[in-house]
Design a protein that fits this description.
One of its GO terms (cellular component) is plasma membrane. This protein has 333 residues and is α/β, with parallel strands linked by helices. Helices cover 35% and strands 22% of the residues. The protein has a single domain (5-92, 172-330), classed as 3-Layer(aba) Sandwich (Rossmann fold). It starts with a strand and ends with a helix.
Length: 333
């Protein structure tokens, strides 16, 4: 069976006053039916732009998708008309945005935010849509759902609003959900609840999921495969086990070292990633991570390393020193 989603050599760029920004610079990856895939990286690495490109929600101007294919369930989304894309969004692909307060309409009740999707994509009448909305709020664990349906977004807590966003995303039984930093604005306890909820619902319903996050701690428990992005490119990809136990790119290694760990002494210091993310308008022909890399050599400034196989099948890394990093990491430890 072919993958549910296959992104091939996708390029998305923005024309700005400072110059051309290649926010997504030739990324390729797949998502199988029912699989959870994580896209990880710092702010500005291209994670969210890549997700919005799948849904063709890039504002034009200043942005546009310049190259590549987005194959979803056998269709190239780049070739569809805008009317056809509107049918795909919400019905076949659901989106959970980063900040629900800016994604939910402040002047519509919670009921209307859910029923509108059902009426548009499934042709449901108002009574049927309201019954389904009640079921969805119960499914996502909102207490007293009948009362909540009549309320407005500002009357709900941050955790409840995020649950509503999940309910909206699930309303039409999509095949894929894209969750863009779904727990950023929530406290740690609520973050865990939301992530566990999404994990249980996607497994129960057989929905594939893309989780976009900067937090590698999230990925270990919830994703089967991981794509690490830096400066618009995927610099490492593989199973969650491979990424965690045998990282082969200096950026992945640096991200892992900057995550707090419960198995370390309480006074152990975090090891932050050195330097700042690059200016995407001023990238040269070498590796974009080179100025921040502890393992850079002369070759890194001469060409961009290709994403190539390392270690176990399906494990890829874009680093000239990938083969040496396991030994270097052991010595450094």
């Amino acid at each position: 069976m072919p993958p549910l989603l296959e992104v091939r050599a996708l390029h998305t760029e923005f024309r700005t006053g400072a110059g051309l920004v290649r926010a997504v610079d030739g990324i390729s990856y797949t998502v199988e039916h029912g699989e959870t895939v994580a896209i990880v990286g710092e702010s500005g690495s291209g994670k969210s732009v890549g997700a919005l490109s799948i849904l063709r929600l890039i504002p034009n101007p200043p942005g546009r998708i310049t190259n590549g294919e987005i194959l979803f369930d056998g269709k190239d989304l780049r070739r569809l008309s805008e009317a056809e894309m509107r049918e795909i969004r919400g019905r076949d692909i659901g989106m959970v945005f980063q900040e629900p307060m800016t994604s939910l309409n402040p002047v519509l009740t919670i009921a209307r935010q859910i029923t509108e999707t059902l009426e548009q994509h499934q042709g449901a009448d108002r009574a049927t849509a309201e019954r389904r909305a009640l079921e969805l709020l119960e499914m996502v664990g909102i207490a007293d759902p009948k009362r909540r349906l009549k309320q407005y977004p500002h009357q709900l807590s941050g955790g409840m609003r995020q649950r509503v966003m999940i309910a909206v995303a699930l309303a039409c039984n999509p095949k894929l959900i894209i969750a863009d930093e779904p727990t950023t604005a929530l406290d740690v306890t609520i973050q865990a609840q939301i992530l566990e909820l999404m994990k249980s619902l996607t497994r129960k319903l057989g929905v594939a999921q893309i989780i976009i996050t900067h937090n590698l701690g999230v990925v270990a428990r919830y994703a089967a495969r991981v794509n690490v992005m830096y400066a618009g490119r995927i610099v490492e990809a593989g199973s969650a086990d491979a990424i965690y136990h045998n990282p082969r790119h200096p950026y992945t290694m640096a991200l892992l070292k900057s995550v707090p760990r419960l198995d370390q002494p309480r006074r152990a210091r975090l090891d932050p990633v050195d330097g700042q993310p690059p200016d995407l308008t001023r990238l040269d022909g070498g590796c974009a991570f080179r100025p921040r890399c502890r393992f850079a050599v002369e070759q890194c400034g001469q060409a961009r390393p290709p994403l190539a196989a390392v270690g176990e099948p399906g494990h890829l890394s874009a680093c000239f020193r990938s083969a040496e990093l396991a030994e270097i990491r052991d010595v450094a430890a």
